[in-house]
Design brief:
This protein is mostly helical and 54 residues long. It contains two helices and no strands.
């Protein structure tokens, strides 16, 4: 009897985990900034702060 073997590419999952790990790593700094009452109306994007993620 032959068994079918299937492989899965986990690259997309790893990309999501890396992205969310980066977001979670910056969460305390963001929370401190917001709690300080600083003006957030300038709308600086996360990519401008930490750079593009590949």
């Amino acid at each position: 009897m032959q068994q079918a073997q299937q492989t899965y590419d986990l690259t997309p999952l790893h990309a999501v985990v890396r992205e969310w790990t980066g977001r979670l790593d910056t969460a305390p700094a963001v929370a401190a900034f917001l709690a300080s009452g600083c003006d957030t109306s300038d709308g600086v994007s996360l990519e401008d702060v930490i750079g593009a993620r590949g």
